[in-house]
């Protein structure tokens, strides 16, 4: 049995706790011993992305203290996972920092590459649109990039396709950014909203009932646009769907 530390991003903790709960429930169903460190906080990504990486040293130290002794760390967020993989640093405990970087996985990455999940016991009878977030796709290589002449793959899509009753609809522009971009949506609001509207338009044309993905930050951005236009399309993190499909 693997001992897995569940790393809960701060925006999920504050706004979408059901995503963390679904991640926890799914990992337990799959036989993992899950630990949720209660003293975990933000990983420091917002500060680092805004040019203040030096101010995130406390976040790094806290992360190492909370997750340094676990077999694996799993996170339902590609962007936060990538930040730890690429930027976790400790002058006091450099070996622990390196070990964490090697043991942290985004949720679908962990299910595919470590647990080798291939079957689901339940069903999810909905028409679902998949949004590929940039960090997960281009940073963690969870799915292929259209500009490369290379084999096409998608770890999130492969998992969703295995759920009985789920009709997966992948947009034609499958790797186009939604416009969230962390602080980008604050400093370039108009551009960010237009990019999000373009994404929403394609999913609505595909008549999806639910829009999903691996980064709740991107889904939060798209959900705001959907709500403002009173669209019937609902947003669900992929952890919620995978958990529902594994009874």
Describe this structure in words.
- This protein has 247 residues and is an alpha/beta fold.
- The chain folds into 2 domains: 3-113, no CATH class; 127-244, no CATH class.
- 47% of the residues lie in helices and 12% in strands.
- It has a 4-stranded parallel beta sheet with strand order 2-1-3-4, with helices on both faces.
- Strand 7, helix 12 (216-228) and strand 8 form a beta-alpha-beta unit.
- Helix 2 crosses helix 13 and helix 11 (189-205) crosses helix 12.
- The longest helix is centred in the last third of the chain and has 17 residues, at 189-205.
- It is globular, with a radius of gyration of 18 Å.
- The two termini are 20 Å apart.
- The mean pLDDT is 92.
Q: What's the SSE blueprint?
A:
Blueprint: E1 3-6, H1 10-15, H2 17-29, E2 33-35, H3 45-49, H4 57-67, E3 72-75, H5 78-87, H6 94-103, E4 104-106, H7 107-113, E5 127-131, H8 134-139, H9 155-161, E6 167-169, H10 184-187, H11 189-205, E7 210-213, H12 216-228, E8 234-237, H13 238-244
Parallel strand pairs: 1-2, 1-3, 3-4, 5-6, 5-7, 7-8
List keywords for this structure.
single chain, 247 residues, Cys_rich_dom, (Fe-S)-binding protein, alpha/beta, 12% strand
Radius of gyration: 18 Å
Order of strands across the biggest sheet?
A: 2-1-3-4
Number of alpha- plus pi-helical segments: 13
Instruction: Pick out the low-confidence regions.
Output: none
Work out the number of β strands: 8
Mean pLDDT: 92
Helix-strand pattern: EHHEHHEHHEHEHHEHHEHEH
Share of helical residues = 40-55%
Strand content: 5-15%
Distance between the termini: 20 Å
Compute the number of structural domains: 2
| Main beta sheet strand tally, sense and closure | 4 strands, parallel
Structural class: alpha/beta
What shape does the CA trace take?
A: globular
Domain Cysteine-rich: 4-85, 128-222
Protein name: (Fe-S)-binding protein
InterPro entries: Cys_rich_dom (IPR004017)
């Amino acid at each position: 049995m693997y001992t897995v530390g569940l790393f809960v991003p701060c925006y999920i903790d504050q706004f979408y706790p059901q995503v963390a709960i679904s991640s926890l429930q799914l990992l337990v169903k799959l036989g993992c011993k899950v630990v949720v460190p209660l003293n975990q906080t933000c990983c420091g990504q917002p500060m680092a992305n805004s040019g203040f990486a030096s101010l995130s040293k406390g976040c790094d130290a806290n992360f190492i203290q909370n997750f340094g002794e676990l077999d694996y760390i799993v996170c339902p967020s590609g962007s936060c996972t990538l930040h730890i993989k690429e930027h976790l640093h400790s002058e006091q405990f450099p070996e622990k920092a390196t070990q964490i970087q090697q043991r942290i996985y985004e949720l679908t990455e962990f299910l595919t590459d470590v647990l080798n999940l291939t079957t689901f016991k339940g069903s999810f009878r909905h028409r679902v649109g998949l949004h590929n977030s940039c960090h997960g796709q281009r940073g963690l290589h969870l799915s292929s990039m259209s500009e490369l002449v290379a084999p096409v793959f998608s770890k999130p899509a492969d998992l969703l396709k295995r759920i009985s009753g789920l009709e997966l609809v992948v947009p034609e522009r499958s790797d186009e950014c939604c416009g969230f971009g962390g602080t980008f949506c604050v400093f370039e609001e108009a551009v960010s909203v237009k990019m999000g509207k373009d994404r929403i338009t394609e999913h609505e044309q595909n008549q999806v009932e639910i829009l999903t993905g691996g980064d709740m930050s991107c889904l939060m951005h798209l959900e705001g646009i959907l709500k403002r236009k009173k669209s019937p399309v609902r947003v669900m993190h992929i952890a919620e769907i995978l958990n529902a499909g594994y009874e």
